[in-house]
Amino acid sequence: AIGAAVIILNMPEIGGLEKLVSHPNVSGKLDLIPSFSNTDILIAVFILPIAVQWWSVWYPGAEPGGGGYIAQRMLSAKTEKGALKATLLFNITHYALRPWPWILVALASLVVFPDLASLQQAFPGIDQQIIRHDLAYPAMMKMLPNGFIGIVVASLLAAYMSTIATHLNWGSSYVVNDFYKRFVKPEAEDKELVMVGRISTVVLMILASIVALLLSNALQGFQIMLQIGAGTGLIFILRWFWWRVNAISELTAMVVSFMVAIYFQLIHPSTSLPELSYALQLIIGVGITTIAWMLSAYFTKPTSEAQLRKFYQLIKPGGPGWKRVIDDAARENIVLESKRNEGWDMPTAILCMVLGCVLVYSALFATGSLIYGKNLMGVVLAVIMIVAAYGLSRGWRKLKLQ
Asked: Is 127:42 a contact under the CB 8 Å cutoff?
């Protein structure tokens, strides 16, 4: 991606980075924060993610409260400290550095293909339905030399296959371990479980292919995924802080959010009801799902005391949300607290989380500012990044990490 950006920026049509950012087609599109005059974009890409999306929406790789996608990588580290450092490094490179080669190529496409009509003219054989803004990046790849374009295509295929492999393996593990082995045939031998895993992998791939054929573009798939996860994020956070969250409430959140997503994607468009923006759909989904799982948590049977105590001793969550479990165990002369949990360090951990976010986003915007030639803003953001990194290192020393 970096190589492609360098080659394209040095094309005669572009003339380098300085000419690119000053081009009339590009100069008005370099704002790192959306204009407050465009309410729709401001809500969708700025206010909604900051106010609602980060804590309420489950998305693979960015699950509020953690999830299997990231956990399977963190658990491969030697120590807890190593896992945290690796995850921070990933977030910096993933969010602050990796997007910029793509962004620069996208900006260059505004010079070569200023509108959709120019894309249609350059590729007359392509179906009209495919001529969308997201075609600009692959269209720019046509500008690369033959040898290098092969490397770029191979890299895109590798990225695609790694994601597909992760999700198929992840989904198959659910089918085998959480369904087949638990409910269908607990005594199944390894050979049989492997065969079930292979079959479920093929079935999941077929189902994914069918769903993909029903979608008109990648953005639609992304929005459906967010809508399906809308409202589940909060329960995945609170399960670490509140003993009352149980399996039924988690299942309720997943089922209700899925049903809401199906309604907005398939049923609502066919009705005479007014069209709802994506942002409003997401907020409605979060509200309905949150109410559903909270009612489920209050009115269903809680997790057994033995399981709660086992979980507490394993995880050491601490905090006021587990006080009842600790007090009940103490009345039975069972001590759940340990020296490791003395002095609840969650406030420090939350501060570290905030500092980590400041570090990542200031690195992202500092890089962009320097690329766009806004050097003063870039330096200010770089200083903020350094201060956040220093505060994060100090905070980590106070955490009880293994």
From this structure: no
Contact 318/399 with Cβ under 8 angstroms? no
Q: Which helix (H) or strand (E) holds 252?
A: helix 247-262
pLDDT (tens digit, 9 = 90+) per residue, 63-121? Answer: 787 777 788 788 889 998 899 899 999 999 999 989 999 999 999 999 999 999 999 89
Q: Where are the alpha helices (DSSP H) in 23-79?
A: 24-27, 39-42, 48, 54-56, 68-74
Q: What is the DSSP string of 195-232?
A: HHHHHHHHHHHHHHHHHHHH-SSHHHHHHHHHHHTBTT
CB 235 within 8 Å of CB 293: yes
Please list, residue by residue across 195-229, b when 16 or more beta carbons sit within 10 angstroms of its beta carbon and e when fewer do.
Answer: ebbeebbeebeeeeeeeeeeeeeeeeeebbebbbb
Tokens 């209700």 correspond to what residue? 256
Q: What whole-number distance in Å separates Cα of residue 336 and Cα of residue 345?
A: 16
DSSP result, 74-119: HTTSSSHHHHHHHHHHHHIIIIIITHHHHHHHHHHHHHH--SHHHH
Amino acid 214 reads: L
Contacts of 220 (CB under 8 A, 6+ apart): none
- DSSP conformation class of 11: S
pTM summary value: 0.82
- For 147-188, what is each residue's pLDDT tens digit? 999 999 999 899 889 888 888 988 899 899 999 999 999 999
The closest of 9, 47, 95 to 357, measured between CA atoms, is: 95
